[in-house]
Amino acid sequence: MLKRREAIKDVGRETSMFFVRCVIALGIVIGLMIFLLVREFKLQVVDHKKYQTQSENNRIRVQPIAPVRGLIYDQTGQLLAQNRSIFALEIVPEQVDNMQDTVSRLREMFDITDEQVDKFLEQVKFRPKFNSYAIKTNLNEEEVAVFSANQHFFPGVSVEARLERYYPPGASLVHVLGRMGAITQEDLIRMDEKDLAENKEVGTTRQRYAATGKMGKLGLERNYEDRLHGEVGSEKVETDVRGRIVRVLERQEPQAGDDLHLYLHLGLQRKITELMQEKGVRGAVVAVEPSTGGVLAMVSQPAYDPNIFTGGISNKDYQKLLTPERPLYNRAVQGTYPPASTIKPHLAFLGLKEGVITPNTRIADPGWFSLPNNDHRYRDWKAWGHGATVDVMQAIVESCDTFFYDLSVRIGINRIYEGMTQFGFGQKTGIDIVEEKVGIMPSRTWKKSARGEPWYNGDTVNIGIGQGFWTVTPLQLANATAVLANDGIRFNLQLVKEFAQGNRFEANTPVMAYHQIDTGDGSWLDLVKDSMKKVTEPPRGTARSAFDDAEYIAAGKTGTAQVKSIAQDEEYDATKIAEKFHDNALFIGYAPFEQPKIALAVMMENAGGGGSNAAPLARQIMDYYLLEALQLNQKGEQANHEESNDGAAN
Amino acid sequence: MALRTSAANTHKARRSLLWRLHIDAPLLLGLLALMAFSLLVVYSAGGESLALVERQVIRFGAGLVIMLLLAQVAPRTLKEWAPLFFVVGIGFLLAVLFFGESSKGAQRWIDVGVRFQPSEIMKLAVPIMVAAYLADKALPPSFKHLVISLALVIAPTVLIMIQPDLGTSLLIAASGFFVIFFAGLRWRYILGALGIGMILAPIMWYFTMEEYQKGRVLTFLNPESDPLGSGYHIIQSQIAIGSGGIYGKGWLNGTQSQLEFLPERHTDFIFAVLGEEFGLIGIIILLALYLFVIWRGLYISLQGQDSFSRLLGAALTLTFFVYLFVNIGMVSGLLPVVGLPLPLISYGGTSIVTLMASFGILMSIQTHRRLHSA
């Protein structure tokens, strides 16, 4: 059979043809292999540089490193704001086999709310699985210890430490230091606008914040955000395709932010806070150093502990802050109140300066004042009047309303507006807190534009006793008091005394250093100051009992502001009206009389009369500062030592 | 007889032992060298996973056993069984079409005690069948024989193409065509077919190609059009190869592969890992090894005792080349992405077994010659 087939087939021809075909095939194979090699040569030799660059771009990433935020100290070197490691329970989703099970077992060990779980699961859903996400923040040491002992039961779960802002003084300083908050979309837009305004390339500031999660939202933290933040560092890292860091190639260290050293005296701040809490009052106290404009204390009560915001505040805790007492509200900086009689010294000075009155000008006070051709009676707080021969000194010492009704009408609103503006009313004090309000220093133009009405003489009468349209912030009031104590020099109030970068200190130079009021030969101011001294002295001073037996000489002025207008024939009776309509108690003052060290303004909401309520508080504050704090300060080292002992004991 | 043949060809006793085992030493050496290279690259591409290397070793071992088994089967026997082999294969393909299991959008698997792809059988069954059919005919084949052998190629190709599995159908078509080519297909037919192919290409494009296949071709023509989607593979593999340069980044140091920018780096795109870590030098070594194996395959075929052995051996050898050419061309950005592994280098796949089986057939051809043909 085979033989027959072979006869048909031409084996010789087939074999040679097959050989040719094999040679051709081999030729094609070699040709195509050379074709491949040419291609690889093109990739690996000709275009090598290009692909090498692309390969580097693939794997190398520069990532920012957050700088350490600057610290904040008081004038005695006490730490007011620091960065503390907080511990968070974090989970790397890709290392967890059964998330449901892990979470529920963690909840058996720790107090984790549904809110926290939801927030965590939300993050896990939308972000890379190899990153770490916190399920619970602010672990205490015991919780950290408990977890560490059980860590091996929880693969993919770990306790991580992160730097977070911590305020050792807690609530007493929140209205000075402010607080931090997450950087929002609006913040980012603001950064771009800032870049534009400063002619920088847009994105410069965002770059600075590339590794930062939070920024100052209020108070000093907000105002000095630029300095506190520091300069971002960077790290050149090799990452894999999912962005996971494989190793660090280069590192440029970040530069820590500047530290802030304040004029503020923590002891004084705490003392004031305690006193106000004891009395259970809402209000504000601002104490300044007259010779510098430095703020020694700035208390707004009630307050809240800013540390509860660290690591995210729960909705429940936040709701607690939204009470009618409004602890979130910074009364010292944003509260605008009628100044009441506390501005009588300033008006008296203006009257003397403008020549409207002399030290000997006397009026008769029947207990009321009325404008010519008008039978409306503006009543004095003393129904039967202060006598038939009230001069300017007596008017200040006894806080005679009738004298000042008359005086303000004589000066006229235009000159009052200009004169009071010189004391800083209706103006920013320049305090280094951006949230500052200016209140209202009323004028004809103001009333026209704000109320659409002309100015009436009656409006001027009310201005004489610091009521009507006039509102001030406690900060303005304290500053205006310092101006009197400081012979007419008005400083821009400042909380920050100097900045420090390591050992390099840099003084804080406010934009407008100070403003000198024309005080003539000084006699007008001396008269006003003498009168304020008599306010704290027997026999007639409205604050005489508060300053009974004081070891120093103080000058002051009380004020009682009407919150609710009282009808013509109605009597003010605190027992008959709601607490929120009770009078505000005020006091301004400074001490010691010669070479003043402290000037302050006390504003107590709905607390009643200034002489009986605000003045005693001022006395206690001055006692503490002049007789305790300053004495301690002079002892230097020893003082620090004792304070820290105190802290430890607490 | 075998003993005398070996005596004629060799001077070493060891080789005679291999001969009795029906093993061709040069071919085996070439294959082992490729396997060693594979283990080196798989270890690096698999993120230094020894487990992966272990599984690859097991697969190579299985491949070598299959090779050895097929080498014992005389070409005559293979030829006798060819029709049955082919018919059963077609039967399985039809079964897959109707009862097969889907994975990744293609119906390729069938479960008959063992789960396997019938298309793998056809990679061998088609060239064996066509070679068996043409071996007894006068060559070059007449038009009638040509049409019948083309039908034997086209039927399974179409069945596999509609699974769809473009890569395998391409290989099967190629293996069948190579048999016809070596049988002396006239050049005018070849040129004519090329002409018809050019006319048919656009028609296929519009009527028979799947969307994903069209996408691959489009991406191939312009990978930057979709750098994060289907163009990503091609762009990243070219970056890997190009950044390797002449000497490469060094074993285990390829950033594209180690940092996982390169997708499918231990399977279909392993050539890019090799290019990145071993550079142009490594590629030249690889191609040289392949060329050696191909040369040896053609050499064995040339010495084939009968038409069947010659046609089959040469066709299997060239099919092996198609594998590597399509894969390297794809990874280097010369050809569209077709899911074919780099033969004997890529990790896994049933292809190792099939390939080793075809080398077993080549060894059988080499070692079952009768004395007079030596």
From TrEMBL, chain A:
Cofactor: how bound: Binds one Zn(2+) ion per subunit.
Keyword Protease applies: yes
EC number: 3.4.16.4
Record: residues binding Zn(2+): D365, D380, H386, C400
Catalytic residues (positions): S341 (acyl-ester intermediate)
Family membership: Belongs to the transpeptidase family. MrdA subfamily.
Functional summary from the UniProt entry: Catalyzes cross-linking of the peptidoglycan cell wall.
Penicillin-binding protein dimerisation domain boundaries: 65-249
Name of the protein: Peptidoglycan D,D-transpeptidase MrdA
Essential cofactor(s): Zn(2+)
Taxonomic placement: Bacteria, Pseudomonadati, Pseudomonadota, Gammaproteobacteria, Kangiellales
Membrane-crossing residue ranges in chain numbering: 18-38
All residue ranges annotated as the Penicillin-binding protein transpeptidase domain in the record: 283-623
Topology with respect to the bilayer: Single-pass membrane protein
A Pfam family reported for this protein in Swiss-Prot or TrEMBL: PBP_dimer
Source organism (scientific name): Kangiella taiwanensis
Domain of life: Bacteria
Protein's pathway: Cell wall biogenesis; peptidoglycan biosynthesis
Catalytic activity entry: Preferential cleavage: (Ac)2-L-Lys-D-Ala-|-D-Ala. Also transpeptidation of peptidyl-alanyl moieties that are N-acyl substituents of D-alanine
From TrEMBL, chain B:
Enzyme class: transferase
Assigned keywords, A-Z: Cell inner membrane, Cell membrane, Cell shape, Cell wall biogenesis/degradation, Glycosyltransferase, Membrane, Peptidoglycan synthesis, Transferase, Transmembrane, Transmembrane helix
Top-rank taxon: Bacteria
Pathway stated in the Swiss-Prot or TrEMBL entry: Cell wall biogenesis; peptidoglycan biosynthesis
Membrane-crossing segments per the record: 21-45, 81-100, 143-162, 168-185, 190-208, 278-299, 311-338, 344-365
Substrates-to-products reaction catalysed: [GlcNAc-(1->4)-Mur2Ac(oyl-L-Ala-gamma-D-Glu-L-Lys-D-Ala-D-Ala)](n)-di-trans,octa-cis-undecaprenyl diphosphate + beta-D-GlcNAc-(1->4)-Mur2Ac(oyl-L-Ala-gamma-D-Glu-L-Lys-D-Ala-D-Ala)-di-trans,octa-cis-undecaprenyl diphosphate = [GlcNAc-(1->4)-Mur2Ac(oyl-L-Ala-gamma-D-Glu-L-Lys-D-Ala-D-Ala)](n+1)-di-trans,octa-cis-undecaprenyl diphosphate + di-trans,octa-cis-undecaprenyl diphosphate + H(+)
Entry keyword annotation includes Phosphoprotein: no
Subcellular location: Cell inner membrane; Membrane
Record membrane topology: Multi-pass membrane protein
Chief localisation class: membrane
InterPro entries: Cell_cycle_FtsW-rel_CS, FtsW/RodA, RodA/MrdB
A matching Pfam family: FTSW_RODA_SPOVE
Catalytic activity, EC: 2.4.99.28
Role description: Peptidoglycan polymerase that is essential for cell wall elongation.
Family: Belongs to the SEDS family. MrdB/RodA subfamily.
Protein name (record): Peptidoglycan glycosyltransferase MrdB
UniProt source species: Kangiella taiwanensis
Upper classification of the organism: Bacteria, Pseudomonadati, Pseudomonadota, Gammaproteobacteria, Kangiellales
